[in-house]
Amino acid sequence: PAQQRLPRTLTRDLNHHDGQTVRLQGFVHARRDLGGVQFVVLRDVSGVTQCVGKGLNLPLAESSVEVTGTVKAHPKAPGGFEVQISEFRVISAAVEASPVEIPKMEWNVNPETMLDYRVVTVRGLKERAALKVQAELVAAFRDHLMTEGFTEISTPKIVSAGAEGGANLFPIDYFGQGAYLAQSPQLYKQIMVGVFERVFEVAPVYRAEEHATSRHLNEYLSLDVEMGFIEDEEDVMSLENRLLASIMTRLKATSQAEFDLLGATIPDVPAHIPRISLFDARALVTEKYGHQVGGKDLDPEAERLLCQHYAETEGSDFVFVTKYPRAARPFYAHPDSNADGSLSSEITRGFDLLFRGIEITSGGQRIHDHAMLMDSIAAYKLNPESLSGYTEVFKYGMPPHGGFAIGAERLTAKLLGISNVRYARAFPRDRHRLTP
Ligand code: AMO
């Protein structure tokens, strides 16, 4: 009966049980049978520990098992303790050898194979550490925003129109009617500002981008924020500045072990993240590094160089790029002011945030005036009919508002020095991958 059993101990708590009998549960991470003695490295949610026994019939690696035994200090064992097994029970035996030996995985040899077998490779210590850090980061995102009076919302992922412009929408058949997977909660989070004033959402979004790069997923976790009654986009940037500082403080308290395992450092967030206009940023990378920037935005190399500049000159891993031209922003971006106070037709109050060489956020102030919004929709040659479910609310007193979205996998990958955003998602969807 359960009440007579020892309570379960986690491997990370063995230091509190030196010399005592404990009961552990977990997975066979590694195993070695030397004939007379058997070694089992047991992996549970908190870490790994070496267990040693005699006359054991060892199951295949990855079987789930229960070990009862005595804790002995053992300086050479992982964690500094070893468990001398008195009772060994197989809870659920692996019926086949794992296609990949979890402790010996080398992603650089064949990443596609590792993703093919993701259901087991994701159990790896480094693989799960990345997901654990992301979970902490999301919890910190929620906690901080709630302390600033934000309310969590949940908006539809099946939608009738795109939010961000462009052609990267996944069409779906909605009972014979055309629909799409949401590429962003943008329009709905703005509507919800009319309800709660300050809102956030943590949810996947979908982008039908055909290119396979280290920074693009077709399904990613979007950390969205929207805030009403702002002065301008400066309020939004300072909110994101505080939010990131709070997230990093939390990670220092909860996730140092995962960062150590991955050889990564938690950045300090400056009290005032440097800002530079897109125009000046393009000039800077050309003048300082001789890099000609193509297109209307920054290209990946320009993002890298700009971050290098701010890391070297200001010791900041972060930089806001501000005042994006209308040509590089969606229809909802609020125009910037000209020197004489009139509104610019060229420049918006949109910004990006770069972190360690890559864009992790887009944001800005949005148009809240109904007439201005309708004009913008016409100027972008969009169909006002298809956006009427959104534009309607702007007839009813929408306050000045703005917000941003952080790509959770990009932030996680850059925090941990992971080379590809795919490894910052448990089951990535990319151009060629729909399983597992
Ligand atoms: P944007 O389209 O720039 O802006 O997306 C915001 C952030 O999401 C991340 N991101 C991606 N991550 C992985 N794979 C992708 N394919 C991908 N595309 C984007 C990036 C990016 O900075 N509605 C606006 C946000 C806002 O203004 O509030 C938007 O969606 O980190």
TrEMBL record:
<keyword id="KW-0030">Aminoacyl-tRNA synthetase</keyword>
<dbReference type="InterPro" id="IPR004365">
    <property type="entry name" value="NA-bd_OB_tRNA"/>
</dbReference>
<keyword id="KW-0067">ATP-binding</keyword>
<dbReference type="InterPro" id="IPR006195">
    <property type="entry name" value="aa-tRNA-synth_II"/>
</dbReference>
<feature type="domain" description="Aminoacyl-transfer RNA synthetases class-II family profile">
    <location>
        <begin position="131"/>
        <end position="436"/>
    </location>
</feature>
<feature type="binding site">
    <location>
        <position position="164"/>
    </location>
    <ligand>
        <name>L-aspartate</name>
    </ligand>
</feature>
<feature type="region of interest" description="Aspartate">
    <location>
        <begin position="186"/>
        <end position="189"/>
    </location>
</feature>
<feature type="binding site">
    <location>
        <begin position="215"/>
        <end position="217"/>
    </location>
    <ligand>
        <name>ATP</name>
    </ligand>
</feature>
<protein>
    <recommendedName>
        <fullName>Aspartate--tRNA(Asp/Asn) ligase</fullName>
        <ecNumber>6.1.1.23</ecNumber>
    </recommendedName>
</protein>
<feature type="binding site">
    <location>
        <begin position="407"/>
        <end position="410"/>
    </location>
    <ligand>
        <name>ATP</name>
    </ligand>
</feature>
<dbReference type="InterPro" id="IPR002312">
    <property type="entry name" value="Asp/Asn-tRNA-synth_IIb"/>
</dbReference>
<dbReference type="InterPro" id="IPR012340">
    <property type="entry name" value="NA-bd_OB-fold"/>
</dbReference>
<feature type="binding site">
    <location>
        <position position="362"/>
    </location>
    <ligand>
        <name>L-aspartate</name>
    </ligand>
</feature>
<keyword id="KW-0436">Ligase</keyword>
<dbReference type="Pfam" id="PF00152">
    <property type="entry name" value="tRNA-synt_2"/>
</dbReference>
<keyword id="KW-0963">Cytoplasm</keyword>
<dbReference type="InterPro" id="IPR045864">
    <property type="entry name" value="aa-tRNA-synth_II/BPL/LPL"/>
</dbReference>
<dbReference type="InterPro" id="IPR004523">
    <property type="entry name" value="Asp-tRNA_synthase_2"/>
</dbReference>
<feature type="binding site">
    <location>
        <begin position="207"/>
        <end position="209"/>
    </location>
    <ligand>
        <name>ATP</name>
    </ligand>
</feature>
<comment type="function">
    <text>Aspartyl-tRNA synthetase with relaxed tRNA specificity since it is able to aspartylate not only its cognate tRNA(Asp) but also tRNA(Asn). Reaction proceeds in two steps: L-aspartate is first activated by ATP to form Asp-AMP and then transferred to the acceptor end of tRNA(Asp/Asn).</text>
</comment>
<feature type="binding site">
    <location>
        <position position="207"/>
    </location>
    <ligand>
        <name>L-aspartate</name>
    </ligand>
</feature>
<dbReference type="Pfam" id="PF01336">
    <property type="entry name" value="tRNA_anti-codon"/>
</dbReference>
<comment type="similarity">
    <text>Belongs to the class-II aminoacyl-tRNA synthetase family. Type 2 subfamily.</text>
</comment>
<feature type="site" description="Important for tRNA non-discrimination">
    <location>
        <position position="78"/>
    </location>
</feature>
<feature type="binding site">
    <location>
        <position position="359"/>
    </location>
    <ligand>
        <name>ATP</name>
    </ligand>
</feature>
<comment type="subunit">
    <text>Homodimer.</text>
</comment>
<dbReference type="InterPro" id="IPR004364">
    <property type="entry name" value="Aa-tRNA-synt_II"/>
</dbReference>
<dbReference type="GO" id="GO:0016874">
    <property type="term" value="F:ligase activity"/>
</dbReference>
<keyword id="KW-0648">Protein biosynthesis</keyword>
<keyword id="KW-0547">Nucleotide-binding</keyword>
<feature type="binding site">
    <location>
        <position position="366"/>
    </location>
    <ligand>
        <name>L-aspartate</name>
    </ligand>
</feature>
